[in-house]
TrEMBL record:
Native species: Flavobacterium cheongpyeongense
Protein family per UniProt: Belongs to the enoyl-CoA hydratase/isomerase family.
Signal peptide start and end residues: none
Protein name: Enoyl-CoA hydratase
Stored PANTHER family: ENOYL-COA HYDRATASE, POLYKETIDE BIOSYNTHESIS ENOYL-COA HYDRATASE PKSH-RELATED
InterPro entries the UniProt entry points to: ClpP/crotonase-like_dom_sf, Enoyl-CoA_hydra/iso, Enoyl-CoA_Hydratase/Isomerase
One family name in Pfam for this protein: ECH_1
Molecular-function GO terms, alphabetical: catalytic activity
SUPFAM superfamilies in the cross-refs: ClpP/crotonase (SSF52096)
Amino acid sequence: MSSEKLNGSLQTSFKNTVATLQFGHPASNSFPRKLLDRLTAEINLLSRNEAVSVIILQSEGSKVFCSGASFDELLKVQNEEQGTEFFSGFAHLLNAMRNCTKLIIGRVQGKAVGGGVGIIAACDYVLATPESAVKLSELAIGIGPFVIEPAVSRKIGKVAMTEMALAAHEWKPASWALQNRLFSALYNADLLDAEVENFAQKLSLYNPEALLEMKKIIWEGTEQWESLLIERAKITGKLVLSNFTKKALLQFKK
């Protein structure tokens, strides 16, 4: 596989004042660190773009929205510093989404695992399909959803988050995600793109100052995430070095 494919893809397109940000990776839209950093940088750039009022965040393909962290890179972690650095990528991305001055609409066309669930939770509004099952599988590989937990718990509550985290081998159907407010609405796959665009364009017609103030209110009380998510990355970075995790990752790859 070429280095370009290994690093994944990231594209931004514009229609009126709506920016559509699309990421992709051949390994089920997983995130190597370089792609995480590129996505974070692009969200920060769009946040400063006065010509943009709304962001649509989506991924390539039809079956998987995001499968979380790159297992290949996780297996290469050799020490706690490297582990913390890797998982800090998700911390920086979630903080960029939280601090973004634009409302972010998630378009979820398929399954999401681990970090992918965290990204969904960090969106301000999410439209998905009935095929968009979700799972927090981290405990099954010897770590835990520590970095993304604040985002997930904020969206669906501690009880539902705990249910997902402890049932690490269990897929939660899209109907469950809708009931627990991870998703805002469900649409059949053939209608999803039109519904996402329609909602985004309507939202973009509102007063930009009102949208910004709404964004601030939505994320009130999360200021401590700048340090909290990095502390969580340190926990995960240590656990990923365990023999349990190394063996589990190799088994998952098979």
